[in-house]
Amino acid sequence: MRLEAIPHPSLSRRFLPPILALASTVFIASLLAMVAGGNPFAVLGLIIKGAVGSKFALLETLNRATPLIFTGLSVAVAFRAKLWNIGAEAQLYSGAVVAVIMGTGALAWSPSVLIPAMIICSMSAGALLLLIPTLLKTRLGVDEVVTTLLLNFIFLLLVSLLLEGPLKDPMGMGWPKSARLIAEARLPRIVDGLRLHWGFGIALIAAVIIWIVNTKTTFGYAMRAVGFNAEAARYAGMPINLIMMQTALLSGGLAALAGFSEVAGLKGTLTLDLSPGFGYSGIIVAMLALLHPLGVVGAALFVAGIFVGADSMSRAAGVPTYLADIMLATALLLMVVAVLLTKFRFKRE
Amino acid sequence: MEILEIFLTASFWTAAIRIASPLILATMGELICERAGVLNLGIEGIMVAGAFVGWFGAYIGMGLWGGVLLACFVGMLLGLLHASMTVSLGLSQHVVGLGITLLATSLTYYAYRVALPEVTSPPKIEAFQPISIAILAYIPILGPALAEQTPLTYLAISTVLITSFVLYRTPLGLALRAVGENPFSVAAQGLSVLGLRVGAVVVGSGLMALGGAFLTLSAFDSFFFGMVNGRGWVCIALVVFGAWKPHKAFLGAILFAAFDAFQIRLQQSSIGAEIPYQIFLMMPYFLSITALVVISRKAEVPAALMAPFYKGER
C-alpha cells in the first residue's frame, strides 16, 4: 500500500473525508458517553442544547469563542510559517498581566486612550515573549517546540508569584487574585443588555485583518513561502530569519490579545485560572480551520460550543466534562487524516 | 555552608535518583523514537496515561507488576496510534504528537472520573518499597544512594544499559540508527523502514508510559490530576541535552534530578524562606532551556528526524 496524489479531486473527495471525520468523532463520543452510563442521544442533545439552545447559552458560547479565536489565529499564523509556537498559553497570560498593570488605576486616562494603549502594550508583551524562543531558534538552532512549552510552565509560575506579590489585590481576602480593572479600562458590551463584550468584535476584526495580510500582502506571501519551503525561499532571496521573527511578533501579539480580552472584557480581574488551556485549544482551533484565518472563527465557535455544551451536559447527565476534550482531540487527529485523504488515495503495489 | 551540606547527605542523592527514575525511563523512550527519526510529542500524554493505568491496575488488584505491564501495554497502543499516523501516513509529527498528548490526557481524566465518580481524595495503593541491594553500596559516590531504591528504579537503570547495548552493539541497533539518519540506505538493504520506525515508536512509547507509572507506583501512591506536570517536555529537552546518546541522556537526567532535589531542600532552608517558592519551581524549567541553548549548537541531530519516508520516492 502506498499513497498516491489525486490530480483532480472530485467534489465528494474534497468534502466527504472531513465530514466522515466529524461523524466518527461524534460516534466515538457517543460510545464513551455510554461507558459513563449516559444515553448517547441524550448526551449529544444536551451538548447541543447547552451550546446553542438558548440566548444565554449562545452568548456563553460566543464569549468562550473569543479567546479561542485569538489563540487560534496566533497558532495559525505561526504554523503556516512552520514556526511551532506551542506557547500561546504563556503569551495569553502575558497580555493579561499587562492589562492588569495598566488597567487597575495606575493610569487615569480616558477609555479612548487607555484601551488602545492597553491593546498595544499587551500585544507587545506577547510578541516579545515569543521573540525569545524564536531568536533562540534562528540564532542558535534551539527547537522552539520545547522552549515555548517550557515557557508556559515558567510564565504561569511567574503569574502566581505576581498574584501573591506585587499584583495582589489588597482587598482580596488573601486570595491570589489581582485588583479589579477600573471602569475606563473595561471593554464595553457590543449591545446594551447582552452579555457579550467588544473582545468578540476585536477578534472578528483581527481574523479579517490576518486574512487580508495572508492573501493580499507580500508579508503574508513571504510567511507562506517560508513555511512551504524555507530553502527555496532562501534561494529566492527572502530574509528567512527576519520573516520568522516578524511572524513570531504577530503570533505572540495575537495570543496576548486573548488574555487582554478575557481580563478587560469578561473577568475584570486576573486569577491563575483565567485560561483553562485556551493556548492549547488554540492549536485544535487552528488545525480544524486548516490554518485559514476566517476558518479559525468557525472552528473557535465549534470548539467553544463543545466546551460550553459539555459543561451543561455534565451537570445534567453526570458524564464528565472531559468528554469535550476527548471529542476535540479526536476531531483534531481524524481531521489531519481526513485532509490527507482529500488529496491522496491508497494504491496497492 | 548550609547549601554545601545539602550535597553531602546520602538522602539527597537517594532522592535525586528517585526523582531521576521516571525521567530516565521516558527519556530513553523518546530517545529511541528520535534515533529512528520520529519526534514523539505524545510523550506528556502517554506519561499521564501510564501513571493512571499503572495505578489503576494495582488499585483493582492486578498487583504492582500487573500495573506496570498494563501501563506499558497502554503506552505501546498509544505509540502504535502515533506511529500509524506519523510513520505509515507520514503526517506532521508536531500536530499528531500534540494531538496524542491531548487525547491521552483527556481520556485518562475521563476514565478516572468514570471509574471513581465519588472520590474526593485520591485513593491510595500499597506502592513499591525500596529494596536493598547491598553490593551496589560499594560503587563510589553514587553507590550508597543506589543501594536503597525501588525495583522500578533498577528497571530504569537497566533500560539505559539495554538501550545503549542494542543501539550500538546489535544489527537491530545499527538499522535503527540508520533509519534515523538515512532511511534510503536502510530501504536499499531490503529492510523495512516503516517496520523499524513503527517498532521504535511503539517500544519508546511503552517506556514513556513506564515513566508515568513510576510516579504512581513508586514515587507516590495515588493518582492525581496534573501530576506529570511537564516532565514529558523536560524529557524531550534531556534527549537533546544528551546529544541523542543513552549514557549522556542518563547523566543529564541525574543532573536535572539532583538540581530538582537541591531546589526542594533549598526551599526548606533559612535562605529559601526569603525567596518566593515559585522561583524554585521555575528553576528546573529554566535549567532545561539553558541546557538546550548550551548544547544545541553542536548537537548531532539524527539527520532524518521528522522527515517522513515514502517508499519509492527520493
Automatic annotation (TrEMBL), chain B:
It is a multi-pass membrane protein. The chain crosses the membrane at residues 6-26, 38-58, 64-83, 95-112, 127-147, 154-174, 194-216, 223-243, 278-296. Keywords: Cell membrane, Membrane, Transmembrane, Transmembrane helix. Pfam families: BPD_transp_2 (PF02653). Its main location: membrane. GO terms for molecular function: transmembrane transporter activity. InterPro entries: ABC_transp_permease. The keyword Cell wall biogenesis/degradation does not apply. GO terms for cellular component: plasma membrane. It is found in: Cell membrane. This is ABC transporter permease.
